[in-house]
Write a structure and sequence with these properties.
Elements lengths: L31 H11 E2 L14 E3 L5 E5 L8 H13 L6 E5 L15 H29 L6 E4 L2 E4 L6 E3 H5 L3 E2 L39 H5 L11 H14 L3 H31 L5
Parallel strand pairs: 3-4
Antiparallel strand pairs: 1-8, 2-3, 5-6, 6-7
């Protein structure tokens, strides 16, 4: 299975460097301890347990503001990568190309079961949508504390939380939590596999408000799978490299060598035709049997 998307600077197996900026409310003066408490309520630098009731098991914001979606199923040609990325981007209000889905890796995702038929969307998509919606809610709450603006007076545009009445009051996802983990517990139903569901407090968007889900987006995974250009780790396959290398070798033969090879082939064909005509003539000249 082609997995084209791996995090280069974010790993569940390492501690993330730097705890990010201290959150300071501009609405009223607060002490450093209070600011740190607000910040740590939703985010942490240490790797949380990889369990179904942790928001960090599904969604992470990288240091550059891009989104990592940890999906515990695999794409078997149904187009799950695009679908899940659309759902996550929709709920988080980030551009589609800012979401990278990491699939079916037990190091980074919980067991969400198989993906045959429509279960990838029906069950897996349901969970990823709920997790992304909860992540957005938490990020808006963090921005509300940072900006000193009520959460219901804020909105999100392309991964930036800003006041509805004053776009200058803003904080990006990267500023709020980039490079750290969510410290938020979900309401897990204690099931694993296809029946796993762990929503948060947030309610996913109404379909009538969708801007990304439902849009025709080109699948970037088809060509690499069809032409064996990539392996699961995203590196070019050995077979593909050998094929391309041999192709380059053939193309590099000198014109004189190609002409020589062509001439030899024509001579062999002419010799074969002459031999064939001689054999036919000999058979015709033989006298009939007595």
């Amino acid at each position: 299975m082609t997995n084209m998307h791996r995090l280069g600077h974010f790993s569940r197996r390492t501690l993330l460097k730097g705890a990010g900026a201290v959150v300071v409310s501009v609405g009223m003066p607060i002490g450093l301890d209070t600011a740190l408490a607000i910040n740590s309520a939703f985010a942490q630098g240490a790797r949380p347990p990889l369990v179904p009731d942790q928001l960090a098991s599904y969604i992470a914001i990288n240091a550059d503001g891009s989104v990592a979606a940890f999906f515990g199923k695999m794409d078997m040609g149904q187009g799950l990568y695009v679908s899940i990325a659309q759902m996550v981007a929709e709920e988080l209000d980030v551009p589609f190309d800012r979401v990278k889905v990491l699939m079916a890796d037990t190091r980074t995702s919980v067991n969400q079961g198989g993906a045959s038929g429509s279960t990838g969307i029906q069950h897996g998509g349901k969970q990823m949508r709920a997790a992304a919606a909860e992540a957005r809610r938490v990020l808006v709450e963090m921005a509300a504390e940072k900006l000193g603006v009520a959460a219901d007076a804020l909105t999100v545009t392309d991964g930036v939380v800003h006041a509805k009445s004053d776009a200058a009051k803003k904080a990006s996802y990267a500023e709020l939590i980039g490079g750290r983990y969510f410290n938020v517990q979900l309401e897990w139903n204690k099931q694993v596999g296809n029946l796993l569901y762990a929503p948060g407090k947030a309610k996913p968007k109404d379909p009538k408000d969708y801007k990304i889900v439902g849009q025709p987006i080109k699948r970037a995974d088809v060509a690499p799978k069809a032409f064996a250009l990539e392996t699961r780790s995203g590196t070019r396959s050995r077979r593909s490299r050998r094929s391309r290398s041999s192709g380059r070798t053939r193309r590099r033969r000198s014109p004189s060598k190609r002409r020589s090879t062509s001439t030899s082939a024509r001579r062999r064909c002419a010799s074969a035709r002459t031999s064939s005509r001689s054999a036919t003539s000999t058979r015709r000249s033989r006298p009939p049997p007595a």
